[in-house]
Amino acid sequence: MDITVIIPVKDRRDHIGKTLDSIFKLGMMPKEVIIVDNESTDGSYQFCEQYIKDRPNATLLRETFPGASAARNKGLKSCKTEWVYFFDCDGVFDYNFISTFNQMEAKDYDMVVFPTKRVVDNKRFLRNYIPSNDPRVQMIGNVLGCQNMLFRTDFLKDIGAWNPACHIWEDWELGLRALLHQPNILWLNERAFHEIHVSRNGLWGGSFSQHYKELIRSLTVVVNDLHSSILQPLSRYHAQHLGCLYPHIDLLMYPLYLHISILLGHMQREKITGKCGTYKMAAKALTFFRKNNFHPTFRQKCIANFLRIYTMLGGRGAWRMALNSAMSKKARRESIIEE
Question: What pTM does this model have?
Answer without folding.
Answer: 0.91
